[in-house]
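request received
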Amino acid sequence: MSAALHIDDVSKSFRGLRAVQNVSFDVPQGAIHAVIGPNGAGKTTLFNLIAGAFKPDKGAIKLGERRLDGLRPDQVCAAGVGRTFQIVKPFKTLTVEQNVTIGALHRTRDVAEARDQARSILEQLGLFEMRTMLASNLTLPDRKRLEVARALATEPSLLLLDEVMAGLRPTETDHMVAFLRQLNARTGVTILLIEHVMRAVMALSQHIVVLHHGEKIAEGGPTEIVRNKAVLDVYLGEATP
Amino acid sequence: MDFAFDLLQTMIKGLLTGMVYSLMALGLTVIFGVMRVVNFAHGEMMVVAMYLTVFAFGVLGIDPVVALIPVAGILFLFGYGLQRIVINRFINVPEHMQFILMLAIAIILVNACLMLAGPDAQGVQLDYSLDSFEIGSLLLDKVRVYAAAGSLLIAFTLFLFFSRTRTGKAIRAAADNYTGALVVGLDVKRLYAITFGIGAACVGAAGVLTVMIVQVQPFLSVEYTLLAFTIVIIGGLGSLRGAIAGGLLIGLSEAVAGFLLDPSLKSVFSFGLLILVLLVRPQGLFGRAP
Amino acid sequence: MRDIAPSIRQRLFGEIPRRGWIGLAVLGIGLLLTPWIEPDFVPLMVLIFYFAYVGQAWNIMMGFAGQLSLGHSLYVGLGAYAAAIFYIKTGIGPWAGLFLAIALATAVGGLIGYLGFRFAITGVYFALLTIAFAEFCRILFDHLQFFGGSGGLYLKVENRQENDLFNLRGSPTMFYYVMLSLVALALALCRWLLSGRLGHYWLAIREDPEAAQAIGINVFRYKMYAVLLSSGMTALGGVFIAFYYNNLYPEQTFSMGRSIELLLGPIIGGIGTLFGPILGSALLVLVGEGMTDVTEAWQLPGLKQILYGMAVLLIVLFLPGGVWPWIARHLGLVKTGDGK
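response:
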């Protein structure tokens, strides 16, 4: 299941701080795009705007033909958006299996069916052996995978991944990259990721959007972006005149 | 004309009582403002202080005004110890566990009072209990005036403590930014314990002053806990100014409601106000928006 | 057309772990017990069942939806007064009156829930809101002569020898079976709910409302379900208690003391568990009774409550999950990693 995302001139301020300013870009159906930028650039705010946690002050967000801005987070999920959180939020006193089952219950009322769904997703993500463990007993990389599994269980057409690679070792990063590639190839789910780990960004994304101080400063394919002067200035500091 | 006069008299009485309420609320707001701990045992600590005063007066012959400092001191130590030994473990635990802990302490305190002092109302019969000051044709009970004055003095001292002394400022720093305070080397645990002690001392002082006016019974504590919370929420959890404003407001509204309607309906007004504030402006008059 | 019966059976009895069978066994014993236990114990058991039942009802709001209610006596009172007044004024028995009781309590509960959730009042503010409403009703009923005012409302005590189930007039033994059935039904209901989508969503909301929303759960709606169910169930308990004790006083019925009493069981037994409230209430009432004998002998009022307080303190400090999960783990009744 797949859909295109349209961000159209979106702005959001918090008490005078302009977190996101006039950002526009599109993510075609089935594509994998990345949003990068220094800390405080507004990336997570953008995700929160898409996911319905905040309402934009201005602008429109569309998934396919459907307007997302102004919807509650659970309505946004119903529209087909799955998201992970920068600081993972597992259901700590529940088991891994229960965590994902609850996600799957979004698409079916029957708990047994949801559980089967959950198990298959856990297997794909290599979490099946840990399914009876409490989420609180998981390591951070496993918790990140759990977060992705839970979001996937809601059968999204757009997946928002907020720094899922942070804290992962290189091999784990490669596994996650491979998994996401396969997922995208198999189901066609559109993926938008916020990432700092350039290894993953370069390996996965077909297109990159760069934010700085809430504004889009560059957009393009991976090779273009790493050579883009504005981007380099932002990350490395401007060269002394 | 008589009506207006009686109303004025009632209102002043309400304000005087309100000042003592403010002191009680100050204790609660300080604890919450700094540590985010909701002290459900607040009314119970007040009742303990009241009983201590009754004991001091009845058995030791000490006038409440003199007993004020020692009793407040005892409550300070109690608060300090409680925080250090018990509550400290609960700073980062789900809220409901915190309440339940304080609730348990409240149950123990109030029933200890019941066990030791019995269920009957007891009070402090002072020589000047029935005297009043005459200002024009207004009659103001001496005990109420002393109580209000005492509360005002203590509140003022508290303001000075938090704005002028090192410890006071350190506590405010810890309240603003826990980690930051740790980083600059403040002994936050000790500061928290001091804060709880201060909160307890405030409510203890309020108890001493209150028992000069009303008699104490063990289960008065529930009323006082509710009252303190109502005031603090209306004034704003964590705001010293809010506690004072809220206390005066509630004292006033209770007196007027009791005068115009029925004395037993006085709390209905306060609760109505509480519900209104919770809906419209949950941070209270002076609190920080959540 | 979906075939409901097998799925109900599945959800009630499917995968019953060992602890479930033990529970059923205890239930069976309870049913058969009365001829053998002394008449003195019957009122005690009624009390245990009552607290187990309302504790379970309270548990739904706290343990499953994560909302702390410190004013649950409000629903007991509303239920009790509604059914009692209905019976007194119309002569129609409690089995009809209970609909009125549940409707009233659910309406008020819904109001409180709505105010709380729509306006994002949580935690301590919500708890205080519940207290404020309960206190408000206490004072209100104290002043309304229609409900008997502070003097109290009395139901005529007749025919204590004959058991009139229809009007709930009868011996403690009759009430024993009635309350036992309530507890059993509550348990079955909770088990059924927990094993379904509703129960799973409640757990998610309890754990992390933000994450729950992100996976499509309408948090407001499900919290409301919990509040409505909890308040309605509690009111039902109130109905039975009214007809058992035959007198109601606003000072007592709506008091904060009663609100606290009914939440001690679930806290000690284990919030959010199925058997926690039942075990906790049983412990409290039994220990309480034992204490009453002691305190009467020593003339020490309040000692019992002090011990309750200390028990809660110890539980909160050392066994925050409650007694039941600890026992279940040590008797091997649950797999580690699980927790119900």
